[in-house]
Specification:
Helices cover about 40% and strands about 20% of the residues. The chain is α/β, with parallel strands linked by helices. It folds into 3 domains: about 1-140 and about 220-310, P-loop containing nucleotide triphosphate hydrolases (Rossmann fold, 3-Layer(aba) Sandwich); about 150-215, Orthogonal Bundle (Helicase, Ruva Protein, domain 3), CATH 1.10.8; about 320-394, Roll (Ubiquitin-like (UB roll)). Strand 2 and strand 3 form a beta hairpin. The structure holds guanosine-5'-diphosphate (GDP) and magnesium ion.
Amino acid sequence: MEIGLVGKPNVGKSTFFSAATRLEVEMASYPFTTIDANKGVGYIRNRCPHQDLEVECEPNNAPCINGTRMIPVKIIDVAGLVPEAHKGKGLGNQFLDDLRQASTLIHIVDASGSTNSEGEPCGKGEHDPRADVEFLTKEIDHWLKGILERNWDKVSRKLEVVGGNVEHAVYEQLSGLGVSEAMVVLAVRSADIQESPKNWSGDDLYRLAKAIRMKAKPMLISANKADLAGDDLMDSLMTLGDDIVIPTSAEYELALRKASESDIVEYMPGEDNFKVLRDDISDMQKSALDKIESHMKRYGGLGVQQTLEKAIYELLDMIVVYPVENEHSYTDKDGRILPDAHLLPRGSTAEDLAYAVHTDIGKGFIRAIDSRTDRVIGRDHELKDGDVIKIVSK
Ligand SMILES: Nc1nc2c(ncn2[C@@H]2O[C@H](COP(=O)(O)OP(=O)(O)O)[C@@H](O)[C@H]2O)c(=O)[nH]1
Ligand SMILES: [Mg+2]
């Protein structure tokens, strides 16, 4: 499961990526720290169960900072997208390749309107960032439509002659794009196409592509460079239809995380304040920090952390669950307390967790125990965020 950062060039994708993937923690090893030039690991916050259970945790896959677990999520800094990318313009194809892997997208726009539609700098407010939201979703829709269209004659003829399920046929066309068959079923229903598959028009396929994109690549908008944007620009973006829009300043977030690494400030990502730790900073540093502080107060934070968390907790509707081997000491087989955190879709059951931990544990599932209550739970028991679960398996 990966988060894709998308948008045209120069809006701050790489700055957002650097900020989000920088976390200073004292840990020997945690997974996939740096994967690739444009792939890394960001973190979403989750209350560590150690706070309620009154133990000290020994994190393995998700560091704990003062009672907050930082749950790793992969982030891809997707190549900048320009209009007509689906026709191969700009880095079109590279963009689309990166996009396959993403389960959710953060569309970064320059809220200050100082980047034109091709991604070149322009005077502040000269470009309307709302236009970018429209163009980007259209690009993705055209790309998906192109894939569907490629073999549609053959596929639809076969459906007519041999029979078969149209949703399954569509699903097969999109393999490798992170689209599940269940998503296709919902999308076909919502696209509400009247014709039989053989007669689907380009417009029908486009509507279907759009419906699939909305299910398979749910997106939220980071109104970046909020530090430059005036009130009018921010207001016009914030009321953009149904989309979730979060004011962000990737540049400030990056500056603050760097300052935290150099022990100039103490800052927990996502909070709306920080503490200056040194009194020997220069006037320039001081005034930069003052600006950041007043921006944070105004927007309730810098937005980078909030954006990641909304993508995972709201768009993807995930929960965090902590599996343990011993339900009384909350340890794994090596005696580590609350070592691992697992991200699972809401609705996941005790058995789903068992499979997420290991296929063999899933196969041998007997029952589970909710460590917080000491109650035995069955395989179909739905888990909730923050659960600490022991699985009994053959
Ligand atoms: N003022 C301001 N500038 C930013 C912000 N984020 C990025 N920038 C600047 O915008 C320019 C483009 O950023 P970059 O991350 O390379 O954009 P990308 O092409 O989308 O990856 C750089 O000069 C950044 O310093 C922000 O939040 N505020
Ligand atoms: Mg970049």
